[in-house]
Every structure is written in structure tokens, then in C-alpha cells.
Backbone:
């Protein structure tokens, strides 16, 4: 077992917070972690307990069990367009994204893609995600339904947008509010599901629409707000032109009351000092999406600054601008983004952002993110050496930090042996087709 015991305020604190149990035992009951410790100690406990007979034991020796990965920014209706060639953000939206998202007016299509999407999360070891739907309420109904079937912890919302997109994807602020309200009533706080108000970004939002978002946020304070911020320089100029009255991009959201706890901003690549300060002062969250930022040529995220400014940050794959569902691959790209700015992202820091840090970014660290007793039993069983190259490299790595770093350098979905959601096996790699979900 490997996890980080508690949230930290800087990467230098991580080493002391690492929990590593080479030969351990985890006891679970009713979807929650009851106990984690050394196998010897656990075995002695079990022997003493009369209820041992009813216990089911799964043996994962030689594997590495880590908390389920948390993806803090992903678009489920862009799964089918990963690898859309040749454009940067604004053209990419027009040429690929908007046509793709139009297909989600069909509830059957949304259902099929929801199943596929959730199975991709599980086979990559992601157990919680903050997800964009499309403008169509049926897209989010389909996704929540699939997540509820396995009692997954998921946060999602329908896109709200009323300008600068094809007519088929536009709505009025009134319709947007009514549809959003109905979805909140249907899904928010049902099982482990939460709702996120999801205005796409400033350029597709009128002031009237943002006003509706503000009112909903006031009415439902524990609902999330999830949007994009400062991703691409052409986007930045566009926002400046559109909103000369605002001090900067973030101010468009801030003046509409859309900063603060549970407000999650994807990207944040080109912020000025006052924007960093505003995110910090309002305790807003950033989703760092390295594969997307590199794929769309958007820019390099300044992770170091989030420590300096004490800003909550999680990892996002941002599929379909992001190029993988896999968190290990995402962490490697985060490391490279660091290298280009002379920032050294350690394996401990990388895994922290992907687990407990991500949970904290979503204000869920009291429920998920590590193996503390009482937390929800969402975790991944990783198999560190599946390829000849991984095996070779593993024999040459000594410390835990080195082993984890090699795993994020060479790893991918093949290393996910199985995934548990709510204490139940939800995916096993070697079952039947190899991509099956229980
Ligand atoms: N900005 C507005 N919409 C999107 C989107 O769908 N993907 C990304 N990466 N950025 C956006
Ligand atoms: Fe995105």
C-alpha cells in the first residue's frame, strides 16, 4: 500500500507524510475502509475475531495498492474525438468539438458513450472525476445513471452556453437555468453524486447567463462551479475585447460571484499577479491539464506558484483536448511541463496531486484520497512490471520514490490490475475481454 497521510502545504513535507506498507492488510466494510496496517498485525486481529468466517479475502501480493485517481477536469462527450489534428483552442472548438457535442442530443447515444466513458475511467484507475457534459440535459442524465449503477463518486454538470457556438448548442439563460435546476433536483447529493454548474467559458456566456449561474450558486452553496480560465492567448485577447470593463479574465467570473470554494478553473496558464491573488484569496481550485496544454499548444502551467499562493490544485486529463484517460501518463507530461520551467516534480508530489491533493481540490478529502479509516473504499491495484522494459527498469530502481517515478514514466492502463469502487471490484484487467467492467 502507498498513500499520503495528510494534506501538505509544500512538496518538501511530502516525504514525511508517505505511508508505505510492503505487506499489508486493509479491512473494509460497507464500502468504507475500516483498518489498514501490517499484514502480521492484521492477521492477528482477524484470528482473534469470531466473525472471520464471513470474511472474503482478496490477495494482491506483489502488487501496489494506491488510492483511486481523481481527475479534476474531463469532458465525457469528447471521448470520441481525442487526437483531433492540427488546431489550437478556438479553431479546435469550432472544427471538432462543437460538431461532436451535437450528437449528445440523442439520449441513446449519450447512454452508449457514458458506458464507454465510465469504463475508460475504471480501466485507468480513476475512481472520481469532475466532468463536463454537453448543453443537453440528457447527456448528464445518462452519465449520472451509469455512475449511480456502480455507486461511483462523480461530479458533473450540463454545459451552459448562450453565444458563440452553433445554434444547435445554444440555449437561453432561462432555459439553461430551468434545465440545470431540474438536474440538481434529480442528481445532486443522490448516492455519491454531486452537481457542477458548468458555464463553458467566458466567450460563450452572456452576462445574463452568468447571472443565472450566480443565483443558482447562491441557492445551492454545496453545488460546484466548473469552467475554463486563461488557456490560450487568442482566447485571452477575445475576452479582453469582449469585456473591456473587466480588469482581467478571472474578473469576469469573480464579478459574477463565481469564485470561491468548489469553484474549479481548468488550465490557468496565462494569469497575471492579481488573478493568482484572486484565486488564492477566494480559495478557488485549479485543474492542471498537462496533456491538453501540450496537445493544443496552449502553454506551460506554473505548478510552483500554486504552492507559493496556497491554491488548491488537482490533475485533469481534459479528454478530448487531453490525449489520455491515464493518470500515470498525465503525471509524466506534468513532469515534462515542470522540466521546461526548471521545476522538479517528484513522484511523491505527482501521486499526491493525483490522489489526496485532487480530493482536497474538490473538497472531498474527508471522504476519499487516502486509506484513512472511515474513508470510502475507492482504490487501484497497480501491477508495476507488466512489460519487459518495465521489469528491466524495476530491477534497477531501489527506493519507493524511484519505483513510483519509473511507474509514471513507463506506465499506462496495462499497469492497472483492478479497480475498486465503494469497496467492490469494478474492473479487473484480466477478466474476459480485458476491458470489461463488473
Ligand atoms: N474552453 C472552452 N471549451 C473548451 C473545451 O471543450 N476544451 C478545452 N480544452 N478548453 C475549452
Ligand atoms: Fe476542458
Residues:
Amino acid at each position: 500500500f502507498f498513500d499520503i497521510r495528510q494534506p501538505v502545504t509544500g512538496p518538501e513535507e511530502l516525504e514525511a507524510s508517505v505511508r508505505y506498507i510492503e505487506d499489508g492488510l486493509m479491512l473494509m466494510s460497507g464500502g468504507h475502509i475500516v483498518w489498514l496496517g501490517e499484514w502480521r498485525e492484521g492477521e492477528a486481529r482477524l484470528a482473534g475475531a469470531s466473525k472471520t468466517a464471513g470474511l472474503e479475502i482478496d490477495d494482491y501480493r506483489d502488487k501496489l495498492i494506491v488510492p483511486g485517481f481523481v481527475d479534476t477536469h474531463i469532458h465525457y462527450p469528447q471521448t470520441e474525438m481525442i487526437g483531433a489534428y492540427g488546431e489550437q483552442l478556438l479553431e479546435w472548438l469550432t472544427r471538432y468539438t462543437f460538431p461532436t457535442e451535437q450528437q449528445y442530443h440523442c439520449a441513446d447515444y449519450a447512454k452508449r458513450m457514458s458506458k464507454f466513458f465510465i469504463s475508460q475511467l475504471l480501466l485507468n484507475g480513476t475512481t472520481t472525476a469532475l466532468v463536463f457534459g454537453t448543453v443537453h440535459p440528457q447527456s448528464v442524465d445518462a452519465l449520472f445513471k451509469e455512475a449511480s449503477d456502480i455507486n461511483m463518486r462523480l461530479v458533473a454538470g450540463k454545459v451552459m452556453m448562450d453565444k458563440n457556438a452553433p445554434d444547435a448548442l445554444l440555449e437561453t439563460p432561462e432555459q439553461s437555468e430551468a434545465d440545470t435546476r431540474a438536474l440538481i433536483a434529480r442528481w445532486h447529493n443522490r448516492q455519491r453524486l454531486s452537481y457542477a454548474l458548468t458555464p463553458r467559458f467566458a466567450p460563450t456566456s452572456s452576462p445574463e447567463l452568468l447571472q443565472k449561474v450566480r443565483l443558482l450558486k447562491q441557492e445551492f452553496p454545496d453545488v460546484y462551479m466548473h469552467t475554463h480560465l486563461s488557456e490560450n492567448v487568442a482566447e485571452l485577447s477575445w475576452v479582453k475585447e469582449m469585456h473591456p470593463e473587466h480588469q482581467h479574465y478571472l474578473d469576469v467570473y469573480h464579478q459574477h460571484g463565481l469564485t470561491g470554494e468548489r469553484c474549479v478553473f481548468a488550465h490557468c496558464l496565462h494569469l497575471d499577479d492579481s488573478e493568482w491573488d484572486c484565486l488564492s484569496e477566494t480559495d478557488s481550485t485549479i485543474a492542471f491539464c498537462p496533456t491538453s496544454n501540450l496537445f493544443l499548444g496552449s502553454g506551460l502551467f506554473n505548478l510552483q506558484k500554486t504552492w507559493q499562493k496556497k491554491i488548491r490544485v488537482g490533475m485533469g486529463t481534459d479528454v478530448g483536448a487531453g490525449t489520455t484517460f491515464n493518470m500515470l501518463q498525465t503525471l509524466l507530461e506534468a513532469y515534462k511541463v515542470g522540466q521546461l520551467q526548471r521545476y522538479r516534480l517528484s513522484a511523491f508530489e505527482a501521486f499526491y496531486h493525483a490522489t489526496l491533493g485532487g480530493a482536497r481540490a474538490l473538497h472531498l478529502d474527508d471522504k476519499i484520497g487516502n486509506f484513512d479509516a472511515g474513508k470510502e473504499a475507492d482504490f487501484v491495484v497497480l501491477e508495476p512490471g507488466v512489460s519487459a522494459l518495465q521489469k528491466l527498469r524495476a530491477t534497477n530502481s531501489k527506493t519507493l520514490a524511484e519505483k513510483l517515478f519509473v511507474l509514471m514514466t513507463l506506465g499506462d492502463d496495462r499497469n492497472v490490475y483492478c479497480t475498486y469502487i465503494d469497496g467492490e471490484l469494478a474492473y479487473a484487467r484480466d477478466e474476459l475481454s480485458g476491458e470489461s467492467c463488473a
In short: Residues 433-438 have pLDDT under 50 and may be disordered. Residues 107-123 form the longest helix (17 residues). The radius of gyration is 21 Å.
